[in-house]
Amino acid sequence: MTTYRDREFFLLLLAAVALMFLPSCSVIEYGGLQRRFNRAVELDNMAAVSPYVDGRADYRFLLEELTPEYIQRLDVRMRPNAWMLRGICAWRTGSWSVARDAARKGLSLDPSAGSRDAVILTLIPGLVFEKEAAERWLGESNQSEQSYNSLRGSLKAAWQTMALAERSVGQFTPATTVHYLNYQKWRLAINWAGMIADVTEADTDLGRFRAMNEWAKTMGGVGSFPAAAAESAKNKVKGALRALIDAQSR
User: Fold this and answer.
1) Using an 8 Å Cβ cutoff, are 46 and 15 in contact?
2) What does the pLDDT average to over 176-191?
3) Phi, psi for residue 82 in degrees, rounded to 5
4) Which of 95, 94, 99 is nearest to 120 (CA)?
């Protein structure tokens, strides 16, 4: 059985992300969509512990409402935020191309440098890269070195995109946004380490050794092994998200 842990990405911190978005909502109709997003957050949290809850229904509803045409009608100052919400909803429902398109269009509007909108829009493609890789990995019947090699490009792209989002952080970036970004980096590194631990080649450690060496060459700037990268990211997370990491690490 795989040791990869798909942490459902938002889990309990979805509520924290929702709170990051709320200050941007000033139009009544758009505020209604924000409340629907909060409902999606709550259901997503419930779905993490109950098989009887559909945590994605509200995300699908929001995708249908937050159309490009609707976003175009919003005040120009609200559009980056709306594209960000659309991108996140698309990511949560597995609409990879829609998520990437939303991130690209939101960034094309030049959101304020260092704003939460700018940072999260930059981050979204990385989240998509990893989710794609995770689903492919979990679908493998034999998690071998060959299957790992077929998806490591997506893992690298995810990490590099997160690094790009980190470089977009500025003096006025909200601390909650920085903590969330580093939570995602921690999660990616931990799950990447889990994939490497699953690599098998006959009954030897050769495949795992090669995978570790590949990480060291690519990510040497943050530590020779995924665990070191995870620790580096974890140390930058504070408050509720740090408590969530500690809970998930038990």
Assistant:
1) no
2) 89
3) -65, -40
4) 99
